[in-house]
Design brief:
Blueprint lengths: L5 H7 L4 E2 L1 H8 L3 H4 L3 H8 L12 E2 H11 L15
Antiparallel strand pairs: 1-2
Amino acid sequence: MTLPASETLEREKDKLYLSDAELIRRLGVPDKIIRPMLPALESKWGFPPKSPLFGGRRYWPAVKAWLDKHNGLNVGLPETNRGRR
C-alpha cells in the first residue's frame, strides 16, 4: 500500500468522518491486521459504527474516545473530591 502525498495527509488531518482506509492510516496498524477485525470490533466490542448519513464513514472523535477507553485512559472531566473535607 502506498501512502498519500504529504499534502493530502495534511489536508485530511482535521477530518471528522473517515473512511476505513483513512481510519487505518490514522491508527497506524497494518491494513491486513485491522481491516478483518473491524466487523467484530463493532459487533462485539462496541466500536463506533459506520454512519449511513455520512457515506459509511466513522466519526473520528468517537473512535478516539473508544480507543482511549479501551487503553485505560480516563475520558472526560477529572474526578472531584465531592463530600470530602
